[in-house]
Design brief:
The chain is mainly alpha-helical. The protein has two domains: 2-126; 178-399, MetI-like fold (Orthogonal Bundle). Helices cover 73% and strands 0% of the residues. The chain is flat, with a radius of gyration of 30 Å.
Length: 407
C-alpha cells in the first residue's frame, strides 16, 4: 500500500513538473512572438499568419490551464477563495479572450495581446525563488543577445546577398560582389590599417600609463595622495570642452597627424581608478615578502603586481580597444585636410554620406548594390572586434568586479 502511495505521489509530482514546464514554454513562445512582431515588423510580415496561429495555440494552452484551475478551486473552496489568490489569472482568462478576438478582427489592436503578462505570476509561482531568478535572468540574457546579434547578422547577410532582396539574418541569392568591391578599395584598406595601428599603439600606451600611474596611488603612505587624487577627480568631472582640446592639439603641432587620433584617448581617470582599486585588493604581504628577499620596487611591480592584475588590465584594455576602434570624433576634431590618415570608421561615415550616383558614374552596377556595399564595409569593420572578443572574454568575469570590493 505504501509503495502504491509513493508511486502515485511521484507520478503526481512528475505530472506537475511537466505541466509547469509546458506552461513556461507556452509563455516564453508567446512573448517571443510578440517581441518579434513588435521589433522586427518589416521582416515578419510574410510569416505573420503562422506566428498568429502559434500565438493562438499557446494562448489556448494557457487559457485552458486557467479555466481548469478556476473550475477546480471554485468547486472545492468557492469562487471567493479563488478570487482572493488568483485575481491576475482570472483577469487574464477574461481579458485575453477579448484581446485575442479583437486582435484577429482588428489588426490595429494587436497590441492588446500583451495582456499575456497577467499570466506570468501564475506560471512563475510554480518555481522557487532561485529558479524564478534563473529563468528571468536567462530569458533576459537571451533577449539581449538577440537584440545585439540579430542586427549584426542582418548586416552580414545583406553584405552577402544580391541587390533588391529583403534580408533578415540569412543571405538571399548569395553574392560576393559587395565584399570583393570593399576589399579592392585601396583607401579603405589603408584606413583599416591606420585603425589597427591606432588601436595597437593607443592600447599599449594606455596600459603603460594607467597601470604605472595607478600603482603609487594605491599606496596609503604616498605623500600628498589626497591632493593628487583630488586633482585627478577634478579633471575627470570637469573638462575644458572640445575647443580647448583642439587648441591644445594645434599648439603641440599634432593637428592632422596620426598622433592626434591616439594621444587624447590614452588617459582615462575612470579606468585608472579601477586599476588602482584592483591593486589595493592585493595582499600587502606579497610585496613585503618580496622586499625582505631583496626585490626592488620595479621588480615587485613588474613580477608580482602586474601578473596578479591581469584580469582588470585585460578588461580595461578591451574597453579601450573598442573605444579606439569606434572613435571617429577625433578625426572630425583634429583632421582638417589630411584625409589619407582617416581611420576606418571615419572612412565608412564619409562613404555613406556620398551620393550613390556620383560613385556609380564609372561603374553603373554599383548603384543597384549601394545598400549591400554599405553593409559590406560595416561587416568588415566589425570583424576585428568580433575576433578579439573571444580572446578577452575569459578575463571579463574576474576583471569587471576586480577592485570593486576591498576587504
Amino acid at each position: 500500500m505504501k509503495i502504491m502511495h509513493d508511486h502515485l505521489k511521484t507520478k503526481t509530482k512528475n505530472g506537475f513538473c511537466w505541466r509547469r514546464r509546458g506552461l513556461l514554454f507556452c509563455l516564453f513562445v508567446s512573448l517571443t512572438v510578440l517581441v518579434l512582431e513588435g521589433v522586427d515588423n518589416r521582416y515578419t510580415v510574410g510569416h505573420r499568419s503562422a506566428m498568429d496561429v502559434v500565438f493562438a495555440l499557446m494562448w489556448a494552452v494557457l487559457a485552458l490551464d486557467s479555466g481548469i484551475r478556476l473550475f477546480r478551486v471554485t468547486r472545492e473552496k468557492g469562487f471567493s477563495c479563488y478570487w482572493k489568490f488568483n485575481k491576475a489569472d482570472f483577469l487574464y482568462l477574461i481579458l485575453s479572450s477579448a484581446a485575442l478576438t479583437a486582435a484577429f478582427l482588428l489588426p490595429a489592436y494587436a497590441w492588446c495581446r500583451w495582456i499575456l503578462l497577467l499570466k506570468m505570476p501564475r506560471v512563475l509561482s510554480g518555481y522557487n525563488d532561485e529558479n524564478v531568478f534563473q529563468i528571468i535572468a536567462k530569458s533576459a540574457a537571451l533577449i539581449l543577445t538577440a537584440v545585439f546579434v540579430v542586427p549584426m547578422l542582418n548586416v552580414v547577410a545583406t553584405a552577402l546577398s544580391a541587390p533588391g532582396q529583403i534580408v533578415n539574418v540569412l543571405p538571399k541569392r548569395f553574392d560576393l560582389f559587395s565584399v570583393r568591391f570593399a576589399l579592392a578599395d585601396i583607401q579603405f584598406l589603408k584606413s583599416f590599417g591606420y585603425s589597427l595601428f591606432i588601436v595597437a599603439v593607443g592600447t599599449t600606451l594606455f596600459l603603460l600609463i594607467m597601470a604605472t600611474a595607478a600603482y603609487p596611488l594605491s599606496k596609503p603612505d604616498l605623500p600628498g595622495k589626497k591632493w593628487i587624487m583630488l586633482f585627478y577627480m577634478f579633471t575627470m568631472y570637469f573638462t575644458g570642452g572640445m575647443a580647448t582640446d583642439i587648441v591644445l592639439m594645434d599648439s603641440l603641432g599634432l593637428m592632422n597627424t596620426i598622433w592626434a587620433l591616439i594621444l587624447p584617448s590614452v588617459v582615462s581617470i575612470y579606468y585608472m581608478l579601477l586599476i588602482k582599486s584592483s591593486y589595493e585588493s592585493l595582499p600587502s604581504e606579497l610585496e613585503e615578502a618580496a622586499k625582505i628577499d631583496g626585490a626592488s620596487q620595479i621588480y615587485v611591480f613588474t613580477k608580482i603586481v602586474l601578473p596578479l592584475s591581469k584580469p582588470i588590465l585585460a578588461t580595461t584594455a578591451s574597453f579601450m580597444v573598442v573605444g579606439l576602434w569606434n572613435n571617429y570624433m577625433n578625426s572630425v576634431m583634429y583632421i582638417t585636410y589630411n584625409q589619407e590618415i582617416y581611420p576606418v570608421q571615419m572612412y565608412i561615415r564619409n562613404f555613406m554620406a556620398r551620393n550613390p550616383f556620383d560613385v556609380a558614374m564609372d561603374n553603373p552596377a554599383l548603384l543597384s548594390y549601394w545598400d549591400n556595399l554599405e553593409m559590406a564595409y560595416l561587416a568588415l569593420a566589425i570583424l576585428p572586434i568580433i575576433c578579439a572578443y573571444p580572446l578577452l572574454f575569459r578575463f571579463f568575469k574576474n576583471g569587471v568586479t576586480a577592485g570593486a570590493v576591498k576587504g
